[in-house]
Amino acid sequence: MNNSALLSLLCLVALLHQSLAASPQFNVIQFGAKPDGRTDSTSAFLAAWKQACSSTRGVTLYVPKGRFLTRSMLFKGPCRNSAIFIRIDGTLVAPSDIWAIGNNPNWIEFQYVNGVTISGGVLDGKGAPLWSCKLAGRKCPTGATTLGFSFCNNVLVSGVTSLNSQMFHVVINFCQNVKLQGVRISAPGNSPNTDGIHIQMSTGVTVVNTKVATGDDCVSIGPGAANLRIENFACGPGHGISIGSLGKNVNEPGVQNVTVKSTTFTGTTNGLRIKSWGKPSNGFARNILFQHATMNNVQNPIFIDQRYCPDRNCPDTVKKIKKILSVTTLFRSSVKQHFL
Questions:
Q1: pLDDT tens for residues 58-74?
Q2: Could you name the domain of life of the organism this protein comes from (predicted)?
Q3: Which of 156, 179, 283, 327 is most deeply buried (CB count within 10 A of its CB)?
C-alpha cells in the first residue's frame, strides 16, 4: 500500500470514528431499565426505541452488562433514519411464567424497520416451563418466538445468542436483505417446536457462520422464500435444514434460488430435507443447490418427502404428486456420512 492510499484509509477510519462518536446513544439504563433480572424493564426498552426511531441521524441503542427482564416488545417503524445500531452487552430474559408472553406470537419483534443492526448479547427465552407443560399434555399457551422480523429491510444480526426459546428462535417474514452472521442458537434436543431460524415470504436472506442446536428444524424455509444463502453452518441436535412443508394451500408461492453450502450435521434426524403435501397446489421448489455437506450420525442425510402429512385424514397422493414439487436443480453436492 503506497503512502497516498494509507493516508486515505487513515482519514476514512478517522471520519468513521468521528461519525460514531457524534451519533446519539440511548442507554436503556437512562430510561429506567434495571440490570437485576427481576425488575420489568419493558417500558424502558420501548422508550429508548421510541427515541432511537424518531432520531433523524444514525443512532445507537445500548444494552449494558446485566440481566434485563422484559415482557413482549414490539419495536415498530418506519423510523426517521435507516441506521439504528442495537448493541447488547448484557442478557435479555423472558418471564418464567408461561402465560406472561406465551400467547403472543413474538417476545421481541421488529416491524416495518429499514436499516437496523443487532450486535451481541444473549436472548434467554426461558422456554423450559412451557416445554414441560406441552410434554405433559396440559393446557398451555402456544409459545412465543424469541426474535421476529416482519416487513423489514436491510437487517443485520451479528453475534447474537438465543437460548431456550418457547417456540421458534428467529423468524424472518416478508423481509428483504437480511443477514445473520455468527449467531448461536441453543435448546435441548427434546424441546418441542423450537425451530432455529424460519424464513418465509422473504428475499435476499443470508445465514453465515452460524451454529444451531435445537429440538426441531435448524432452519425451516417456507413458501415465498427466494434468493436465500446458507453457508458455514452447523446443525445438531435438531431436524436438519428443511424446505417446506410446501403445497398445503392451492395458491401458494414457491421457494426458489436457495444455496446451502459448507454445512455440518451432527446427531440430527435429517440432514437436507424437502417436504411437500400430496395434494393439488401451485407451490414449488426450484433452483435448489445443496453443496459440501458433512453428516455425522444423521438418520436421513437427504430426505425428499412428497407425501408429507403429519395429521390424520391425509389426501390421496398417488396421481397428484407431480403438481406439487418442481425442482429444476436439486443436488450438486458432496455428502459425507460418518458414523461415530
A1: 999 999 999 999 999 99
A2: Eukaryota
A3: 283
